[in-house]
Amino acid sequence: MIPQGFTDDSFDKFIDADGVAIPKDQVVRTTKDAYGMSITLVTSPTVLKESRLQFNCDKLNGAPLENEGGAGSANAHWEYLYFQVRHMSRHTG
């Protein structure tokens, strides 16, 4: 299942392949990008693995969430710059 969006309290509901809850601090974290901008990354083991495969980069630290917009967009969807699929990212128009 692909999440259609995120809320702050959805990050503590991630589970591993055995159905065991993954602690929130292992699912999402906020950091700075190369330009000093604050970004939020989904860092769960599965998202990290799939993101590294998708972008062919084993040093990737997670999948970024949208960092612009209001409460309906910021940290609620995948970053459109990288995930330009309508059902996975913020879309206007």
Structure report:
The protein has 93 residues and is of the alpha+beta class. It has a single domain, classed as Leishmanolysin , domain 2 (Leishmanolysin, domain 2). It has one helix spanning 45-55; strands at 28-32, 38-42, 63-64. It starts with 27 loop residues before the first strand and ends in a 29-residue tail after the last strand.
Task: Show the helix and strand layout.
Layout: E1 28-32, E2 38-42, H1 45-55, E3 63-64
Please give the alpha-carbon distance between the first and last residues: 25 Å
Superfamily (CATH H level) name: Leishmanolysin , domain 2
Write down the Rg. Answer: 13 Å
Total strands? 3
Task: Return the CATH class.
Answer: Alpha Beta
Mean pLDDT: 83
Q: Give the helices and strands as they follow along the chain.
A: EEHE
Main sheet? Answer: 3 strands, antiparallel
CATH topology: Leishmanolysin, domain 2
Provide the helix percentage.
10-25%
The DSSP helix count reads 1
Q: Which strand-content bin applies to the residues?
A: 5-15%
Q: Helix/strand-derived class?
A: alpha+beta
CATH architecture field: Alpha-Beta Complex
**What would the principal axes of the Cα set say about the shape?**
globular
